[in-house]
Structure formats: structure tokens, C-alpha cells
Write a structure and sequence with these properties.
The chain is mostly beta strands and 121 residues long. The chain is built from no helices and 11 strands. Strands 2, 4, 5, 6, 9, 10 and 11 form a 7-stranded mixed beta sheet that branches. The chain starts with a strand and ends with a strand.
């Protein structure tokens, strides 16, 4: 069984910062891609940032220069440092991982349960 568990969401004033964490656990052999998505009320889920093993991170235009994604491969953990937060960043943030499990050659997609980020103006 594989799980992604997020933490770090909360309420912050505009201009403030938050750091999200997401740890994958279970019978994991390898994680290729870890990403953060977000979904605001009434909107579709959108990709915020992604980091591929051995590759450079990529960001949505709306967060470039403000958000930083990083990864600790030893801990199977991905982070999202969010600075200069704006009210438009208010959303539920979801962690995503594309990984390979023990005993299978297939790649699987997993999602975290989501963590609420609310930015007050």
C-alpha cells in the first residue's frame, strides 16, 4: 500500500509564506515525478510545480519567482516553498507522485488527500 501524506497548509496573510510537505510511504521502488497541483473553488485542478528525478523543476507562470519545489529523494518527500502569497493562491493543494511499486514494472499515479491554503488580503 502506498500513501502520500501532505502537511503545512493553513491561513496566512497576503505577502506571507508557507511551506508544504508531502511524504510518500509504502512499498516504493522508485519515484519518477513529484508534483503539486491546486484546485480553487469553482475551478479545475491545475499544475503548480513539478520536479522529475534528475531534472529541473517546472512551474506554472502564475507562481514563477514566488514558489520553489524541491525534493529529498532519501525521504521520498517533496516540498513546496510558497513566498509572496496572494489571495489568488487560495486553494486546496494536492501532492502527486508517479512511482513504481515493489513487485511490478508498471508506473502508478498517486495523489495526496489535499491541504488547504488560504491567503487573506
Amino acid at each position: 500500500q502506498v500513501q502520500l501524506v501532505e502537511s503545512g497548509g493553513g491561513l496566512v496573510q497576503a505577502g506571507g509564506s508557507l511551506r508544504l510537505s508531502c511524504t510518500a510511504s509504502g512499498t516504493i521502488v522508485s519515484i519518477a515525478r513529484m508534483s503539486w497541483y491546486r484546485q480553487a473553488p469553482g475551478k479545475e485542478r491545475e499544475l503548480v510545480a513539478t520536479i522529475i528525478s534528475g531534472g529541473n523543476p517546472n512551474y506554472a507562470d502564475s507562481v514563477k519567482g514566488r514558489f520553489t519545489i524541491s525534493r529529498d529523494n532519501a525521504k521520498d518527500t517533496v516540498y513546496l516553498q510558497m513566498n509572496s502569497l496572494e489571495s489568488e493562491d487560495t486553494a486546496v493543494y494536492y501532492c502527486y507522485a508517479n512511482l513504481k511499486k515493489t513487485g511490478t514494472e508498471a508506473w502508478w499515479a498517486y495523489w495526496g488527500q489535499g491541504t488547504q491554503v488560504t491567503v487573506s488580503s
